[in-house]
């Protein structure tokens, strides 16, 4: 009973961390074209600016996952969330296009929260309950990408720095929840990785998974879905401003409606 209670508390904390992280992400995404235009960016530069976050995250997430296998989930979450807080503050303080790029790259690289959250779910659940745990992270994605743009659109009426500071504050709350409610969960995961003769977070493990007949197609579909979603979010925000002349608030509310 106590084990079940602890697992439920950890899953709730993982949901909170993921939810606040995704709200912060969703707050700024619709506003980036408008913010960057103020520094003279054209549509191509805005596209690179938005893509720089994903590229940095692509490089950083496996690294943070690997470190979490050896050093523990909780310390890595603390570091990555602090990185998100600092990145969003830098975004709000930006006074040039270069600083915007630096802030997005830094935030993307340090944003390993979701990959570590998924690892935590794997640590504390068995095969029967794992789908429920990972489903909570999926629910956090959906809710965060609805509430985030809506909140960003509302706050943008006072300036584009306000949404960035709000995203930083939400990540600070996430950090607080890690310190208060999240125990270390990695020993079981580390033992499994050692027993497998390797590391759950590695490019070799990814290549091996892609070759497996049941896992490979799922990963490929997930990649196509993520590519299509990110392309839509990027192109829509750019087209809404430069093509349709929509305000930042209108664009943000439309993306919140899409979810």
UniProtKB/TrEMBL annotation:
<dbReference type="Pfam" id="PF07690">
    <property type="entry name" value="MFS_1"/>
</dbReference>
<keyword id="KW-0813">Transport</keyword>
<dbReference type="GO" id="GO:0022857">
    <property type="term" value="F:transmembrane transporter activity"/>
</dbReference>
<feature type="domain" description="Major facilitator superfamily (MFS) profile">
    <location>
        <begin position="10"/>
        <end position="259"/>
    </location>
</feature>
<dbReference type="InterPro" id="IPR036259">
    <property type="entry name" value="MFS_trans_sf"/>
</dbReference>
<feature type="transmembrane region" description="Helical">
    <location>
        <begin position="44"/>
        <end position="64"/>
    </location>
</feature>
<keyword id="KW-0472">Membrane</keyword>
<feature type="transmembrane region" description="Helical">
    <location>
        <begin position="76"/>
        <end position="94"/>
    </location>
</feature>
<protein>
    <submittedName>
        <fullName>MFS transporter</fullName>
    </submittedName>
</protein>
<feature type="transmembrane region" description="Helical">
    <location>
        <begin position="12"/>
        <end position="32"/>
    </location>
</feature>
<feature type="transmembrane region" description="Helical">
    <location>
        <begin position="221"/>
        <end position="240"/>
    </location>
</feature>
<keyword id="KW-0812">Transmembrane</keyword>
<dbReference type="InterPro" id="IPR001958">
    <property type="entry name" value="Tet-R_TetA/multi-R_MdtG-like"/>
</dbReference>
<feature type="transmembrane region" description="Helical">
    <location>
        <begin position="133"/>
        <end position="156"/>
    </location>
</feature>
<dbReference type="InterPro" id="IPR020846">
    <property type="entry name" value="MFS_dom"/>
</dbReference>
<feature type="transmembrane region" description="Helical">
    <location>
        <begin position="162"/>
        <end position="182"/>
    </location>
</feature>
<keyword id="KW-1133">Transmembrane helix</keyword>
<dbReference type="InterPro" id="IPR011701">
    <property type="entry name" value="MFS"/>
</dbReference>
<dbReference type="GO" id="GO:0016020">
    <property type="term" value="C:membrane"/>
</dbReference>
